[in-house]
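As practice, study what follows.
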Amino acid sequence: MRTVKFGIIGCGLMGREFASAAARWCHLPDMDVRPEIVAVCDKNAELLKWYSGNFASITQVTDDYQEVLANADVEAVYIAVPHNLHEEMFCAAIRAGKHLLGEKPFGIDKPANDAIMACIAEHPDQLVRCSSEFPFVPAMQRIGDMIDAKAFGTILEVNSGFLHSSDLDPNKTINWKRMKKFNGEYGCMGDLGMHPCHMPFRAGWYPKNVRAILSNIITERPDGKGGMAACETWDNATLFCEAEDADSGSVFPLTIKTQRIAPGQKDTWCFEVLGTKACARYSSKNTNSIEILQYSGGEQAWQVIDMGHEVTFKSITGGIFEFGFSDSILQMWAAFLTELAHGKTPKRFAGCVLPEETAYSHRLFTAALESHAKQSTVAI
């Protein structure tokens, strides 16, 4: 069993999820490579206590990320920090010779992403990937298999979204995601957009153009100090695009939605593919199910299939049991470690987001900002 020693830079919500996944690596009996957390870094000392109290493998606790990058024991890093820090920290990690899984959107804006991409090109021996858990859900893996099998026929329409209601309460205290200096001009697109882009991009369905409708719904929030602060970023975004089906050459509508204010949605991933031979749709509101319509003439009928724990990287969990978010985290990390150890993943749709896919997302989101400002369709 190969052990890859990791440093975590940014020890908040997602850092804890990765550390927890590493702690239960025995859940994946066929893996021949495993992560070990040896270093953690965050400016918030309170966050670091949880790591020190739960992981005896940790030998370095610091508030200076450069110390983690200088640690010869650290082979790879996971970086989960606000978007304004991506360019600096991602490039520093790559130049330090560390493999990197970084959080989306891989830069606060397109120039930052361009700089990260240039750094990656200068260091081809480093594995660099972006985080997105969405495709590792069993239903999404099934849809990926259908795409690879060309089961849909000519693609008619694709709809993808990440919808939640975490900002529905107007009395919620403002956080960094509503501030341009931390989250950037993209707003919800930068924070949420890579998730609904991951599957279409991996399928080769890249938007050719975009007509964007962006909404800043709640314009100020409590600042946590007794006053009010301006909410500067977009709450919701709907991107109406055209993409091309490489097999048929036909152009079809692709809609991508990212919403922080979506009433009735706790935290919903959704994806739908409509084709001439088959259709499929999934929503995490019913995470154990996938709906499929197969058409060969006659009556049309949707069937609902319970997926169970059908995963790419074998788990000890029984196949009959439902799949959850912590399972998708574990599967994503298995994909990263498998690619690090073996150079590839078992399937096209069982891999982490590629840097090139983040670059296209920046082209899309930048065009979306222009489209909304001009109220017109913008070519990408």
DSSP finds eleven helices and 17 strands in the chain. The chain has a mean pLDDT of 97. The longest helix spans residues 355-374.
